TrEMBL record:
Residues 109-160 form the RNA polymerase sigma factor 70 region 4 type domain. One of its GO terms (biological process) is DNA-templated transcription initiation. This is RNA polymerase sigma-70 factor. Keywords: Sigma factor, Transcription, Transcription regulation. PANTHER family: ECF RNA POLYMERASE SIGMA FACTOR SIGJ, SIGMA 19 FACTOR.
Length: 298
């Protein structure tokens, strides 16, 4: 990519880069794949005849969406052979993302997992329409469907997601308070304190990718999850520590073993209790939480 800050082609791309990355990431659930999509988008952008582009934002979103859809159809086949549960790649995000409630929910681990249950086209349409309020005609051009078909796909995807998304989006303050209660309970190994902060139907999903130890199936129920945290940390050799952070626009814990990053644990909260715990231990997914520069997604 050119370093010439006065180059209008480069300036136009950089002006929309955060938006394009977020679109690609929400479609793919992988920051590494999203970065590859942006490289492909850039190459197509510099080859495009700029005089023929009336709406640069729409043109760039269209290229990005098409590239992301092509990649998603490929990686979905690879994910079928993934060892244990698959979780999205966590992103260390800037505080302003957490303050944007709708954006924070859209990139949360909980909603990203719901998006995994959509078809590639449904996912792209949902992201463009519900998260970024892109017009139906513009989406139709991006996914090669008619506007009427896109409206039907959007309605079907919204109904599917609404049936599975959290009932109420909590504030960043409430999320941090619940996370701190959970952190204290884990560090003290107090099973009763854990039960008080975990919802009865809580689900723990851990992703080791076959590289790190992780449960091969989700663990459901407050008592089972509490037992794992109350006694499970002792199974590892070394000292575990946790520190609060913001991942995917929501409160999370950065977990270290003997000072080295072991993983990231994100949470979902409803009615002041944790309903979902998402522990990413796969080291191949942790590069964007070890960065010292949090991402701004919009």
């Amino acid at each position: 990519m050119s370093d010439d800050a006065t180059d209008p082609v480069t300036e136009a791309f950089l002006a929309h880069r955060n938006l394009l990355f977020t679109v690609a990431y929400e479609v793919l659930g992988s920051a590494a794949d999203a970065e590859d999509v942006l490289q492909e988008t850039w190459l197509q952008w510099v080859r495009a005849g700029q005089g023929q582009v009336r709406d640069r934002r729409a043109f760039l979103v269209r290229i990005t969406t098409r590239q992301a859809l092509n990649r998603l159809r490929t990686i979905k086949r690879h994910r079928e052979a993934y060892v244990g549960p698959w979780l999205p790649e966590p992103l260390l995000t800037a505080p302003d993302v957490a303050e944007d409630v709708e954006l924070a929910e859209s990139v949360s681990m909980a909603l990203m997992l719901v998006l995994e249950t959509l078809s590639p086209t449904e996912r792209a349409v949902f992201v463009l329409r519900e998260v970024f309020d892109v017009g139906y005609d513009e989406i139709a051009a991006a996914v090669d469907k008619s506007p009427a078909a896109v409206r039907q796909i959007a309605h079907r995807a919204r109904r599917h997601v609404d049936a599975r998304r959290p009932r109420r989006v909590v504030s960043s303050y409430e999320g941090r308070a619940v996370l701190e209660s959970f952190r204290r309970a884990v560090e003290t190994g107090d099973p009763q304190a854990l039960l008080e902060v975990l919802a009865p139907e809580v689900v723990l999903v851990s992703d080791g990718g076959g590289i790190k130890h992780a449960a091969l199936r989700p663990v459901t129920g407050a008592e089972r999850v509490a037992r794992m945290f109350a006694g499970g940390m002792g199974r590892f050799e070394g000292t575990f520590t946790t520190e609060p952070t913001v991942v995917n626009g929501n409160p999370a814990l950065l977990v270290r073993l003997d000072g080295e990053i072991d993983g990231v644990m994100a949470i979902s909260v409803e009615d002041a209790r944790i309903t979902g715990l998402y522990y990413v231990r796969n080291p191949e997914k942790l590069s964007h939480v070890t960065s010292t520069t949090p991402l701004t997604l919009h």
